[in-house]
Structure formats: C-alpha cells, structure tokens
Amino acid sequence: GIAVVDDLADYGVPVLLFSGGEPLMRDRVYELMSHALERGLHVALSTNGTMITEQVAKELTAAGVNRVGISLDGLEATNDHFRGVEGSFEQALGGIRACLAEGMTVSLRYTVTKHNSTHLEGIFRLAEKEGVQRLCVYHLAYAGRGRGLLPADLEAPERRAMVTDIFRQTVELHERGGDME
Where are the alpha helices (DSSP H) in the chain? Predict the structure, then answer.
C-alpha cells in the first residue's frame, strides 16, 4: 500500500480517494492515509459511514482526511433493507454527524433505483437538515454488484422525471437560502 501511495505521489496525483467495499475495514488504513498526506496528496474517503464514530472521525482528521462521502440507499427502512443490516441508516447518520463535527466536508451519496426513487425529496431534506455540504445523486453503474441490480434501474422516462425533480429541489433549496452543492 505504501508503495502504491508513493507511486501515485510521484506521478503527481492530487487527491487519493480511499474507497471500497468499506475502506475502514482495511488494516493500516490510517497509516496509508497519513502517508498520502505526508507525500502531499489530499486525502478523501468514500464509505457507508457505519463505522464512523466520534473517535474514528478524530482519527480520520488526524490522518489528513478532510472530505468524506457517505452513501445512503434510501431513508431508514429502505437503506437498512438494501444494506442487509438493521440500524445501518442510523449508524451512517451518526457517521455524517461525527464527520461534520470534526469540520470535514461531507457529501451524501445517493444512487437512485426503482426501489428508492420516491425517497429523493426526503434525502434532500435530510441532507439540508444535517448541514451536509454536498449531495451527489448517481445513476446505477453496471459494474460489480450493480450488474445484478439491472432490473432495479430506472427506465428513461423515470430517469428524466428524476433529473427534473433534482433541478426543482435544487432551485427550491437555494431559494430558501441553502448553499449545499
């Protein structure tokens, strides 16, 4: 891992995003993050957020992480069902709050499918209420686990309606004075 970080730094990569699976399960992840910071890279994390406690958020900050993307798959019951773990929504929400308390920039990441498309407005409201700085809405990627989810993907008219709704909600957010990206 250290050699890969060194190669990336030598190549001039500006940002190293630790992603996964769940990157916080990797042995020595904080050491790799700290090394990346020492080598001049900006360090970011993409996670499901369930492992981020107040202490973990402090360790992430110490390791140089200043941007965290936390994925949700819907509001509480839908997220927990999709993740297969009861309570994962609340754990992710705790992770969001812990990162915000540490002063990190937090992005809420949301992949829209037929199973959670009705939650989009609730996700906007949640992100706004929690003070999340960025909401990233994604379409389903047909790679890895996503291949098995193809039947859950939105049809073209559903996708168009979703994009229109994102524009509407974004405008409304900014009209209310919100500055979330």
Answer: 2-11, 29-38, 54-62, 76-83, 88-101, 120-130, 156-175
- Residue 14 CB coordination number (10 Å): 9
| Higher pLDDT, residue 172 or 20 | 172
The Cβ of residue 122 has, within 10 Å, a number of other Cβ atoms equal to: 14
In angstroms, the CA 119 to CA 172 distance is 17
Compute the distance between CA of residue 36 and CA of residue 164 in angstroms, rounded to an integer.
39
145 vs 53 pLDDT, higher one: 53
pLDDT tens for each residue of 150-176: 888 999 999 999 999 999 999 999 999
Residue 45, helix vs strand vs coil: strand
pLDDT for 146 equals 62
Q: What is the torsion angle, in degrees rounded to the nearest 10, for the CA atoms of residue 157, residue 77, residue 69 and residue 161? A: 10
